[in-house]
Amino acid sequence: MRYPKIGVVTLGCPKNATDTEVMLGLLNEAGFQVTFDIDEAEMCLVNTCSFIGDARKESVRTLVELADAGKELIIAGCLAQHFKEELLTEIPEARAVVGTGDIYKIVDVIKSVAADSSLRVVEVSDVPNDYSDEVLPRMLTGVGASAYLKIAEGCDHTCSFCIIPMLRGKFRSRSIESLVKEARILVKSGVREIILVSQDSTYYGLDIYGKLALAQLLEALNEIEDLVWIRVMYFYPTETNDEILDAINRLDKVVKYVDIPLQHSHPEVLKSMLRPLHPEKVMDRVRAIVPTAKIRSTVIVGFPGETEEHFEHLMAFVEKYRFDRLGVFTYSKQVEVPSGLMPDQIPEKVKKARRGKLMKLQHRISAELNQALVGKEIDVIIERFDDSKNVYIGRSQWDAPEVDNLVYVKDTENNLVDMGEIARVRIDEAKPYDLFGTAIEVDQCAATACDAGASAKSLVTAGGAAKSLSDADSKIEKDKVKTAGRHAKAKATTGDAKTKAPSSDSETAETGKKYLAVTVSN
């Protein structure tokens, strides 16, 4: 049987990226060669996004570009779930489509089309409600000492603008035992920051334990030796209860960061969105129980029926609560969901003007909040090195990968920073969305890791460490791209890939990055 070399492109959110890693892990385990250099690939696995219009267009554009380059295409993810057979009709180079609930069948799908050049496969469940609690092999594709851990799939909420329940099915949690097992494997590989993701992380456990169980999951993960930071993405306002917030405040490894998409502030708009009312209550609760927390949120402007009064209410809300991180997005019409059929659709020009005005306000707030950090010492997880500027680049505990602020770090002593380590940094300068500082030497015994409870000099292998997460040798092909950074502690190979990484349930932002390939297996 033919074993084509498989290239990979991931579009969309961190949850999609995790699905890609599982598919690549399964393919690698089955003996397929995987490359992150698309030029070398015979067949390309494209994990697509279909959340909003722009993401859909980007997915289609990527597929067309790869088809024009003569690549055979395996289309997975939300676009495949959304359009199914239509993709095979529209794109002759597409050999198969694989739905969001069928990624575990990827090996059989590719074996089938590789064995029969005339065969085209549709493996898309009508209702994508299958979800495995098994710890499956993963091929880590991220740079840095961080990894995502998808704690659940699907969503039970019915926000009027959101297509996710249609594409991902009902909410299904993984067990605490399964998640802790996978987290231990990741940490054993060198990962030091675990980022919990799902469509709604605060809903975790209700379907399998009969109660919200995120606090119990955090307790269990907090016991893992050598894990430094635990980050939770995607809180839902009405589920962000005292128990969860107390766990965040109390547990030393859980970073003091709350990512809670509120989407708007005015009750009339929130009712139309089918979102929780009174966002001020959850904001007050977070700041009362976790006083050191930085809060990230997203809002949508230009939702159908949004008046100037509604928008000014949102402006006043943002001014009052001074979000540490804020994404502002114009409403994206989709006819498959209720909001797409609502009257009083807002003109694009008005949407963009409102977004610009709100972002100008947030720009000032961010500048003021960052300026207050000048002269302070914080801990930074170092992820890459910029040769042109001779600085390291990393993140604080208050910043998630891809979507939040960066910290640029000078190592004037030339021996205080290594790739993948958490370095102590004195902040010398601040801009609205970035910090600039100098690495400083600290007493390891006294270091506190920026209130996260981690050692300030925890040794972390570069890029998640390019060694197998099991005792078996990794079977990854060595791609011809250098690892980011001068002082990578582990021998690793990387390749180019494209990704789009949205930060929350209404955000999509395109980035390009290098990827480190690591095999994760039991």
Structure, described:
The protein has helices spanning 14-29, 53-68, 78-83, 85-90, 106-115, 164-168, 176-188, 206-209, 214-222, 242-250, 267-273, 279-289, 308-321, 348-371; strands at residues 6-10, 34-35, 43-48, 72-77, 94-98, 121-123, 138-140, 146-150, 152-153, 172-173, 193-197, 229-232, 257-259, 294-301, 325-330, 377-386, 391-395, 406-410, 422-431, 434-439, 494-500, 510-516, 518-520. It has 14 helices and 23 strands. α7 (176-188) packs parallel to α9 (214-222). β3, α2 and β4 form a beta-alpha-beta unit. With 522 residues, the protein is of the alpha/beta class. Helix content is 29%, strand content 23%. The strands form 7 sheets. The chain has a 6-stranded parallel sheet with strand order 2-1-3-4-5-6, sandwiched between helices. A 5-stranded mixed barrel has the order 16-17-18-20-19. The radius of gyration is 22 Å and the shape is globular.
Structure, briefly:
With 522 residues, the protein is α/β, with parallel strands linked by helices.
Unreliable parts: 444-519
Distance between the termini: 27 Å
Large-scale geometry: globular
What helical percentage do the residues reach?
Answer: 25-40%
Rounded mean pLDDT is: 86
Q: State the helix count.
A: 14
Strand arrangement in the largest pleated sheet: 2-1-3-4-5-6
Report the radius of gyration as a whole number of Å: 22 Å
Largest sheet: 6 strands, parallel
The count of strands amounts to 23
Q: Strand-residue fraction? A: 15-25%
Helix/strand/pairing category: alpha/beta
Please tag this protein with its features.
five-stranded mixed barrel; 29% helix; 522 residues; alpha/beta
